[in-house]
Amino acid sequence: MSRTADEAAVEAANTAFYEAMETGDFEGVSALWLDDGATPITCVHPGWPVLTGRGEVLRSYALIMANTEYIQFFLTDLKISLAGNTAVVTCTENILSGGPPEDGAELGPLVGQLVVATNVFRHTSDGWRIWSHHASPVLADTDDTEETGDPGDDEPRPDQA
Amino acid sequence: MSRTADEAAVEAANTAFYEAMETGDFEGVSALWLDDGATPITCVHPGWPVLTGRGEVLRSYALIMANTEYIQFFLTDLKISLAGNTAVVTCTENILSGGPPEDGAELGPLVGQLVVATNVFRHTSDGWRIWSHHASPVLADTDDTEETGDPGDDEPRPDQA
User: Fold this and answer.
1) Structurally, how many domains does chain B consist of?
2) Is position B159 within any domain?
3) Which of A20, A84, B89, B154 could bond B119 through an S-S bridge, CB–CB 3.0 to 4.6 Å?
4) What CATH number is given to the structural domain containing B110?
5) B44: which residues sit within 8 A by CB, 6+ positions away?
6) Per-residue pLDDT reduced to its tens digit, B79-115
7) First and final CA of chain A: distance in angstroms?
8) What is the pLDDT of residues A12-39, one digit of tens each?
9) Is the ipTM of this complex over 0.90?
10) A131 to chain B nearest CA, in Å?
């Protein structure tokens, strides 16, 4: 495949990952994670510690889906860096989500969240599969970073963020 | 190199990265980032948006070093997942840091911080180099996750963390 076709395939796998989350498709999410019997997978949800291996990672998705009535991802700033059989995808996940309704309410409260993700994909005979997912909340004010990419002096130091 | 020698080399590169940060060695940090002229690098500091490319990434380290008088990383939970010329390293960065002294004080205030990182390394003719670094604060109570890796029901949902 040409580099462009590879990039399109990686982007399609990345999109499929978020769509499976949106539709609560646990089997779909499971199928997208690398399962080659040799390469351990890792996953960090926003604010969580590192989860390692299929058991831990897939349990976390089952837990998230059980507690999420509604979730939608608006992906922006998607960038793909390809080398050999590996791709590093970064994107901003603009998340709108809600939990199950409580106390007889019709809908649970909706929450908006700004999260950035680094998703590492590995090419297999079945296509591109997720090797590592690391998502984290954006806490700093990014207003002046979007154009220059240079965090201003008035932003918190990362070691104090 | 055998798989074990590769893992040792990846771990050495990972250690060198944090030691260069500790000693404020900007040239050392710069040299450890992948610079093959073809593969864009990406970096996420805790709470920050994604930084892409050598210019943005290295400027962020210059900024951090300029605002950090003292920083020490105690790495725990280090795990390496290797496939071909790529390695995914996860670790917990137990960080102790302090900024420049203010108002005539001898030392700035020290801050402890619990951060998890996913570091992606690429093998080059010069050794293993950092392709992607994503670090994020651990916000959830991890007391009951260390043994089972299974976040309890009483923890915040990742989409609300």
Assistant:
1) 1
2) no
3) B89
4) 3.10.450.50
5) A90, A116, A118, A134, A136, B50, B51, B133, B134, B135, B136
6) 999 999 999 999 999 999 988 887 777 777 899 999 9
7) 42
8) 999 999 999 999 999 999 999 999 999 9
9) no
10) 8
